[in-house]
Each structure stands twice: as C-alpha cells, then as structure tokens.
Amino acid sequence: MKNLITTWQENKDEAAKENARFVQQLKQYNKTSVDAVVHKMHTKVFKQIDCVTCANCCKILQPYFTQSDIERIAAHMQLSPSTFAEKYLEINNYKEFRMASKPCVFLNANNTCSIYSIRPENCQTYPHTNRVNFNKRGAYISEHTQVCPAVYHILEAMKQEFDKND
Fold it and tell me: 122 with 65: CB under 8 angstroms?
C-alpha cells in the first residue's frame, strides 16, 4: 500500500502529459469496452489502496453539494439548510454549491470523515472511475492523477491493458 502511494508521488508529475494523451486515445475505442477495462482496474486498484491512508481528495478538493446533500447533512447537524450552506459552502461561477474551505472541515485528524455515512454524493462516488462513460470524463480523470494515487494507478493499469490488446 505505502509503495503505491510512494510510486504515485514520485511519478505523477512526469506522467501527467502522457496520461492526458492516453485518455484522448481511448476515444478511438468502443465506450463500453473502455468502461469495462476502467471498472476492472478500479476494482483491482481499490483492493490495494486504503483512502484513509491518503485522504488527499479531502485535503485539496472542494466537493460539490446537491440540494439533497445539503438538506441531509444539515438535518444531521440540526441546522437549517440555509444555515449549513452559509456556514460551510460557497457558490461557484456556475451557481453550484461547493465546500468553502480546504481541507474539508469534516476531515478528522486521522484522515477519516466525521460525516462519512451521510457525506455528499460527490464524495461517495469520487474518484468517479467506476461510473459509465469514462471517455466523456477522461480529461477530468486524467487531471485527478495529480490528486489521487488510485486514479494514477488505474490509468497505469489501463495503459498496460490496452497495450496488450493492440
């Protein structure tokens, strides 16, 4: 596990341009085939990586909150949705709510989440490598190799898989 994070830290910057090119090249393949490979690699990599060891996403990203997220978390905290939003969120240029601070205020010192069971959908599905239509999100995913060691290793495994098939 530690080796995977160290490998990511040592190689993520150098691999950034190659990863961007790779996800562009994937557009030549059938989207269902690409999704099948990325989902296979997602499962394989997440068997080896414990997010709590890293928590980089919680430290440097500002997740988006749906209205449902706001209502659910506010109720849990015994706040009104508007009070919760005023206290913890900001509105971006696209009129979307996102966490106002970095690191996330719900990140505990031991890298666990204080609202894990009710965390925002955006956090629940991060890094979004197990969703369909990978090719539509490829550039976004490629950028997240700089944030998430799992994403980096998923793309590295995908490169090997597509090299075998060519």
Answer: yes
Q: Report strand pairing: 97-99 vs 64-65.
A: antiparallel
> Number of C-alpha atoms within 13 angstroms, CB side, residue 85?
18
Which tokens hold the place of 129? Answer: 């490598």
Is residue 108 classed as helix, strand or coil in its secondary structure? coil
Domain that holds residue 11: 2-57+131-165
27-49 pLDDT, tens digit each:
999 999 999 999 999 999 999 99
Rounded to whole angstroms, how far apart are CA atoms 83 and 88?
9
Structure letter (DSSP) for residue 132: S
Tally of structural domains, the chain: 2
Instruction: Tell me the H-state helices in the chain.
Output: 2-25, 31-46, 51-54, 56-60, 67-76, 81-88, 121-125, 134-143, 149-165
Whether residues 73 and 121 share a domain: the answer is yes
Task: Please give the C-alpha separations between residue 43 and each of 5, 71, 74, 93, 105, in angstroms, as whole numbers.
Answer: 17, 31, 32, 34, 29
Poorest-confidence range of 38-42, 56-60, 119-123, 162-166? 162-166
Same domain, 82 and 137: no
Mean pLDDT of the chain: 94
